[in-house]
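FORM 12-B: Structure-to-Sequence Request
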């Protein structure tokens, strides 16, 4: 199996995990940059993540256009991925989804979504909120062109996560497994924060130092990372698609 085939397979796994962990439902998508051609990225055609298989993966350029003839429908919001990959050479994977627990924080500017639990540290200490109305007025709230997507990428800046007012979030990370991991723990951190606020009193957020300390030793190829990837993939019913680090196919688990 070539490295590209492995990457396609990993992307299928990522889709299934996001569906199983209820980050995505019929909507939401995940993409990965082609390491051999950084001006392209891989993403499913327009399909619910739970149903994505290897044949559904298409290659798009950094304008969000297919690099080969493609008659099948593509995601309307694919421009989000194109703009972030174009703006952020460090980013190898992007998730956009509408996870319900993140939504309240996009519509209440006074309450910042920041890490309050150790696994929430993956989201980073700054989570900005992008409001499409600021530059584009009344829209459907969907990101349907490069101008809107570039504006979102600008709001994301160098961070890992941005919320989209009344819509969802984007996560942008240096590897596919990190994109999945951030996207799984973002709603969990949001839930913990909401419940903490219901208890009343001051909420103790993680300090910058704690966030840094937690993220410092992270490697996308470590045994601990593989453990999560393997667990999620099996829970999502696609453990058979895993490429083990010792199988001789490509590098260690890309996750
Ligand atoms: Zn959306």
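FORM 12-B RESPONSE
SEQUENCE OUT:
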């Amino acid at each position: 199996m070539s490295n590209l085939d492995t990457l396609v397979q990993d992307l299928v796994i990522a889709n299934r995990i996001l569906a199983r962990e209820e980050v995505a439902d019929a909507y939401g998508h995940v993409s990965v940059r082609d390491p051999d051609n950084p001006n392209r990225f891989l993403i499913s055609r327009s399909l619910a993540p739970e149903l994505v298989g290897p044949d559904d993966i298409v290659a798009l350029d950094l304008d969000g256009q297919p690099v080969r003839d493609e008659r099948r429908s593509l995601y309307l919001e694919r421009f989000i991925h194109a703009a972030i990959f174009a703006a952020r050479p460090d980013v190898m994977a992007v998730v956009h989804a509408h996870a319900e627990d993140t939504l309240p924080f996009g519509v209440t500017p006074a309450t910042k979504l920041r890490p309050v639990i150790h696994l929430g540290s993956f989201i980073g200490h700054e989570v900005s909120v992008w409001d499409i109305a600021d530059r584009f007025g009344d829209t459907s709230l969907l990101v349907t062109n490069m101008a809107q997507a570039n504006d979102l990428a600008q709001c994301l800046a160098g961070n890992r996560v941005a919320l989209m007012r009344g819509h969802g979030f984007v996560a942008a990370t240096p590897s596919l497994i990190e994109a999945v991991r951030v996207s799984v723990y973002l709603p969990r951190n949001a839930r913990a924060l909401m419940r903490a606020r219901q208890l009343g009193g001051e909420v103790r957020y993680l300090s910058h130092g704690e966030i840094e300390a937690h993220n410092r030793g992270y490697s996308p190829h470590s045994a601990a990372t593989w453990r999560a990837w393997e667990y999620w993939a099996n829970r999502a019913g696609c453990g058979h698609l895993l490429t083990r680090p010792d199988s001789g196919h490509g590098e260690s688990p890309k996750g």
